[in-house]
Amino acid sequence: MSDVTDDHVFLSLTADHGDADARWAFGTGFEDPLHGVDTTVPATVDAAELAACCLALGDDALVGAQRLAQWCTRAPELEEEMALANIGLDLLGQARLLYSRTGQVDGSGRDEDAYAYFRDAEDFRNVRLAELPNGDFAFSITRLLVLSCWRLAVFQRLAAGAPDPVLKAVAAKGVNELAYHRQFAADWAVRLGDGTEESHRRMCAALAGVAPYLAELFASRPGFGIDPAEVREEATTVLRQVLDAAGLELPEAEALPGQGREGDHTEHLAPLLAELQSVARAHPEATW
User: Fold this and answer.
1) CB neighbours (10 Å) of residue 104?
2) Which of 3, 8, 36, 17 is nearest to 180 (CA)?
3) Most buried residue among 18, 54, 158, 198 by CB atoms closer than 10 A?
4) How far apart are CA 201 and CA 17, in angstroms?
């Protein structure tokens, strides 16, 4: 066993993100993150760039949330099922806020439901890693770890310097949520990687499955002056810290052609969206 415990990894990843004893998603409160925020698009902000940024990050969150929802009744233990559900709800909340902002600034006036339920797969702009099937628990944990490391690095920069006050507020709320997501995934990555021979094998297989999608993820450009190279460096530094504690290595892999940000998706996205959108499309005029 490694001499680096789960608690050491946990503390090292959450020291700058509030309560280190928190074990549940931060997004379950009722405080409106946009309370008092001026929703007028600043004159200095490129509305098209803002809309594209919000849409892409919203799509990442929605697709990721839907994949996590598929773990309901299937997770190894009830506590993990609840944690994954809470993480999915965090991402769903981020998607709702980002879609609402997209509709405000792209000239369409569409609401969050229009973006979530009434677009086809080719209209989505999520990174392809988010849409891959869940596989086993090790794969879902590995994907969550990678996406959380990357998304947290992006949201930290948006929270600090996004020129749009709404996007800045959404990112600020998301930072605490994503810090928890990253911690949860890191905790499990160490347990599995530094656990039994079988759990270690499964984590190695999961890393091999994720690796071909990393180049696309780290090349993604959030906009507003955020340097993808800086995001990649920060995310991979944390990822390698966790993998070192788990006795794992990030394998080299040839990047797959295509970009989810440009509408190039795997064959897995369309059926996932069909599952997500079925009720809304069958009853488009339904109300609560």
Assistant:
1) 20
2) 17
3) 54
4) 32
Q: Residue 214 belongs to what H/E stretch?
A: helix 214-219
Does residue 287 surpass a pLDDT of 80? no
Q: Contact, 264 vs 129, CB < 8 A?
A: no
Neighbouring CB atoms inside 10 A of 100's CB total: 19
The number of CA neighbours under 13 Å toward the Cβ of 133 is 5
CB 118 within 8 A of CB 280: yes
Hey, which bits of 62-116 come out as E strands? none
Query: Which CA distances in Å does 95 have to 23, 88, 262?
Result: 22, 10, 19
The predicted structure's pLDDT at residue 8: 47
Residue holding tokens 């290595």?
Answer: 249
**219-257 pLDDT, tens digit each:** 999 989 899 999 999 999 999 999 999 999 999 999 999
Residues 6+ apart with CB under 8 A from 120: 270, 273
Tally of CA atoms within 13 A in the half-sphere of 103 that contains its CB = 13
CB 124 within 8 Å of CB 64: no
| Average pLDDT of span 201-213 | 98
CA dist 203 → 159, 190, 206, 243, 253 (Å): 32, 10, 5, 10, 16
d(CA 44, CA 225): 14
pLDDT band (50, 70, 90) for residue 26? very low
